[in-house]
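Bench notes, afternoon.
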Amino acid sequence: MLFSQLGRGSATLVMTAHPDDEVFAHGAAIAMLSQQGSRVVLCTASGGEAAENDVTSSAEARRRRAARLDAACTRLGVSEWNWLAEGRWTDTAGRQMPGSLTSASVSDLTEVIAAQVHKIIPDVVLTVGPDGLTGHPDHILIHQAVASAVASCEVPAFGSFLLPADIAQGRDLLAKILPGEPVGSGRMTGRDEPSASPLAAPAHVAEARRAALDEYANGLGTLTLKELVRVFPGRGDSLLLRAVLDAIGWQTERYTRLAV
């Protein structure tokens, strides 16, 4: 079983672009590893400011998102979390702007991530796969920077990804509830990985993952999909990812080993 050897005394470093990525991309692995006794450390590159679009201050948006992230980490069993470089990079929903994570250079991100790896000395690093799981440019940047950082640190790293069939199943579920209504950014297509390592997490981690997702929006993890679309305003990748989890199982994640 992937990561089954990482028990008490081990350390896992999870690298993400935004708060909530830890649930969508790694929620099952984090919950499983924490229950096995691994020290799970999460580093997030931006404050997720774009998701809190009803506030005018970036600082207030980051503060609000941090509270949600903290609660989600508690649900999953994350030992500690921190900003990769607090305030340095802002979430601008993939738009190129001064100070945005989307505008960051891979070399700058690599340098900061490598410093975290040297500080924590993890047994494994988790991030997203080459397509960023969803095709989001911030996610792809994080993948590229993590791959570069671990190459120099010689730490095993794995990227989470979805199969095209996984996304098709999620879309099929949504089509029955929202016929003819487009959902998602269009960037999320999935990829076939010849060296895929499916995570065989125990079924009970699904409860922790659902509860963690609820911390970002009421019912995002625990309402039925039919109930959720009535109250959840978004029709983006978050809703599509939620449908994919329903389709493939909340304890299911797929990983590919990052080349070093």
